[in-house]
Design a protein that fits this description.
Strand content: 15-25%
Oligomer: single chain
Order of helices and strands: EEEEEEEEEEHHHHHHHHHHHH
Radius of gyration: 20 Å
Mean pLDDT: 77
Number of helices: 12
CATH topology of one domain: Immunoglobulin-like
CATH architecture of one domain: Sandwich
Shape: globular
Distance between the termini: 17 Å
Helix content: 40-55%
């Protein structure tokens, strides 16, 4: 959740939905999708210098890679879903291309061609921060600054994590951090691995250091918010969600976490609004649909639950949870109560 000679910083976010139990989207053991493409200078000139390509999903960076001497790049081992392929390379305009990887269809390989256009600059322009997810420094730049020995340990950790070897992954993340204490990507992944093991105190320590190292990256704030949701600390969770959304107002993940927190605290109307907003921002966020189903079941709104289940099954017929969703839908359509909440 690897192609040749690339740095692959996986900034994983453990996603919690109280009504659905713990929803974990791990970049492992799912369909091995790929994104391949080429970066060129408009109208089609080859760019020989390495360019950093970032792949993002659900508001978080999934991985970065470098283009080769002909501008080509590839990322493997991706689970089904929608991704943003982002290039921010001076002096060109930033590019954000949306691609989708399907689970069963032939679209397990997403192809994308990126054309860079020179940015228009004016002396009167002044730096400003508007929406989105601005960073003091790009994640790829942080990776570049790490010594090769730390990057090797980081890559080993990712490889072990993809194989399900959590203990080995944690050891390699710690080695990477020992070699380069400011390695915020390694700290973020280490925090996620520790949170997966319910070692919340140690995870919190890592996430707080991530925020200190890259204070404008919203993903760090959402990690902390999620941790506090998992540990039932509503006030602290709300604080970190607000901080994250102030940095990335259009984060589908942020609104999903907000909806989860609202449901946990019994604010069902607000929960529905936030979950709907997360779907508007990312229609392929399956867990938000399931969270809405559970919200409707909890509030005895079976008609809305049926409608949401149908929408989920139409949009995600091959989802791993589709069989369970069909069972619940069948009971509801037959007039029986669906007493068990949906879990993933």
């Amino acid at each position: 959740m690897c192609p040749k000679q690339r740095i692959s910083p996986f900034l994983l976010i453990l996603i919690a939905c109280v009504s659905c139990g713990c929803l974990k989207e791990k970049l492992e053991a799912q369909a091995a999708g790929s994104i391949t493409g080429q970066v060129r200078i408009y109208p089609g000139n080859v760019i020989s210098a390495p360019v950093i390509v970032t792949v993002e999903g659900h508001g978080a960076m999934v991985t970065t890679t470098y283009t080769d001497s002909e501008g080509r790049f590839g990322v493997n081992g991706l689970p089904p879903g929608q991704y943003h392929v982002v290039v921010k390379e001076d002096p060109y305009q930033p590019v954000d291309e949306v691609v989708r990887i399907d689970s069963v269809t032939s679209s397990t390989v997403a192809l994308v061609n990126i054309y860079l256009r020179l940015r228009e600059t004016r002396q009167s322009d002044s730096p400003s921060v508007k929406g989105g997810n601005p960073r003091l420094m790009s994640p790829a730049e942080y990776i570049r600054q790490a010594p090769k020995s730390a990057r090797r340990e980081f890559q080993k950790a990712i490889d072990m994590g993809n194989k399900g070897e959590a203990d080995e992954a944690i050891q390699h993340y710690r080695k990477a951090i020992d070699l380069y204490p400011d390695f915020y990507a390694a700290r973020n992944n280490l925090g996620t691995a520790l949170m997966n093991r319910s070692e919340y105190s140690q995870a919190k320590e890592q996430f707080e250091k991530v925020v200190a190292l890259n204070a404008t990256d919203a993903a760090s704030y959402f990690n902390l918010a999620n941790l506090y949701i998992l540990t039932k600390q509503a006030e602290k969770a709300q604080l970190w969600i607000e901080r994250g959304l102030s940095r990335q107002p259009d984060s589908a993940l942020g609104h999903f976490l907000q909806g989860s927190l609202y449901e946990m605290t019994g604010k069902f109307k607000e929960a529905e609004t936030s979950l709907r907003r997360s779907i508007e921002l990312d229609p392929l966020m399956a867990k938000a649909h399931l969270a809405l189903v559970n919200l409707y079941l909890r509030t005895k709104r079976d008609e809305q639950a049926v409608s949401e289940l149908r929408a989920f099954l139409t949009a995600f017929p091959n989802d791993a949870f589709a069989p369970k969703a069909k069972q619940v839908l069948k009971r509801l359509e037959g007039g029986s109560a669906a007493s068990d909440p949906l879990t993933r």
